[in-house]
Amino acid sequence: xxxxxxxxxxxxxxxxxxxxxxxxxxxxxxxxxxxxxxxxxxxxxxxxxxxxxxxxxxxxxxxxxxxxxxxxxxxxxxxxxxxxxxxxxxxxxxxxxxxxxxxxxxxxxxxxxxxxxxxxxxxxxxxxxxxxxxxxxxxxxxxxxxxxxxxxxxxxxxxxxxxxxxxxxxxxxxxxxxxxxxxxxxxxxxxxxxxxxxxxxxxxxxxxxxxxxxxxxxxxxxxxxxxxxxxxxxxxxxxxxxxxxxx
Length: 247
Description:
By secondary structure, this protein is α+β, with helices and mostly antiparallel strands. The chain folds into 2 domains: 6-86, Arc Repressor Mutant, subunit A (Orthogonal Bundle), CATH 1.10.10; 89-200, ATPase, nucleotide binding domain (Nucleotidyltransferase, domain 5). 32% of the residues lie in helices and 25% in strands. It has helices at 6-12, 18-29, 34-41, 45-58, 125-142, 181-189, 198-209; strands spanning 32-33, 61-63, 80-83, 89-96, 99-106, 111-118, 150-157, 193-197, 218-223, 227-233, 236-238. It is globular. The relative contact order is 0.10. Mean pLDDT is 86; it is low at 68-75.
C-alpha cells in the first residue's frame, strides 16, 4: 500500500485521522513536543504517541534539532518533533509597494532562500504572476530544490482579503483592489494558492518565529506605511466577515 504524501494529507485528502491532525498541526506550528501536540490537537496522549511512532517509521516526522527556536522551555527541554524537511517546500510572497518579496522554506519551517523583486509603482497582477514564476524557478535552481516538491504558495497583501482570495481594498498596491489572488497566480503557477492580508500573516510569523512563540493569545499591531492589526486567540487568528480582525 502506498504511503500518503504530505500533499495528500494537507491538500488533496485532508482527514480527521490522528496522523492527519498531527501532520497539519506540525505544518502550521513547526517543531512541537508530544505534550504540545496533545494540547493543540485535542487528541489523547496515548493516541498521539501511537500516531507519532507510525509517522516516524514512515519518515514523515523526525526528531527536531535541539537548537530549534520554535521550542523553548525552562529547565530540561522536552523532546520535539518536526516534519521531515525533505517532504516538501513552500513559497511565501508579499505584494508590497514597488516590490515583491519572496521566501522559500521547507516544511520544517527552515528558510532556504529570500529574494526581493523590484516592480514599477502600479504593477499589474498578470505582470506580477509572471515575475513570481520566474523568481521561483530561479530560486529552486540555485538551491538545488525539486520543483515537484513545491506544495503551495502563500500570498500576503496590505489590505483586507476575503475568504475566497479577493483583495477588498489595497491602498499600497491600488491596482490589486478587487482582484482575486487565486485566479491570478493559480493558472500561472499551477499550484494551490493561499491568500491573506499582511497583518494576519505577520501574526502567524510572530507566533512561529518571533515575539509570540509559545503564546496562544495575543494582539499584534503593525505600524509601517499604514497601520494594521491582528488578533490570535487559542492559537488561531480571529477574523471578521471581511477576513480581518475586529479590533
